[in-house]
Amino acid sequence: DHDVARCRNVHAPDHVEQGGLAAAGRPGDDSELAFLNAEIDSLERDSARLSALQGSIRELFRIGPEIPDSALEQAVAAREADLQHSIGTVSARLDHIVSERKKLVTDWNTIENAGPDGICPLCRQTLGVHFGRIGDEFSRRLEEIEEEGLSLCGEQERLAEEKGLITRQRPALLEIRTIP
After folding, report:
1. CA 153-158-163 angle, 5° bins
2. 126 pairs with which residues across the strands?
3. How far is CA 70 from CA 14, 81, 88, 133, in A?
4. pLDDT above 60 (res 23)
5. pTM for the structure as a whole
6. Alpha helices for the chain (secondary structure H)
């Protein structure tokens, strides 16, 4: 009980510790009451601001009630780490298909320059009647690579936008952390 009383009086004015609020009525007590009312108003404003910021973060990042308010920043940081990983994966995949496309175009140019009477640089046989089918196969594969590249570029843009959203929310996250 002594610890509870001590905790309640940590920020209480001296007259409250000595005689409780009933002892108020001495000169100067109005200013102390005004001070306490101002503190209450400040705490209520902070509480409303904190609630608004947390609600905004939850809505922007679609964070449900299963994540407590105290873990919002960690949830956003975890999402940012996932984004970084995904951005790296997409970037590596794009690099791979760019190099695959370059090799495919080089191989096709070699085959096309050899013509139907030429030798296939890959299997060392005469291209002959297969030349048209080989051209179709190269065209089909180039088309697949281009479609995948467009898809990956779209994914890369989406990930970058979400990462930018996190970056733009850093001030709000900092404010949440600093509100008492």
Report:
1. 120
2. 119
3. 34, 19, 29, 62
4. no
5. 0.67
6. 2-8, 14-19, 29-60, 72-114, 131-178
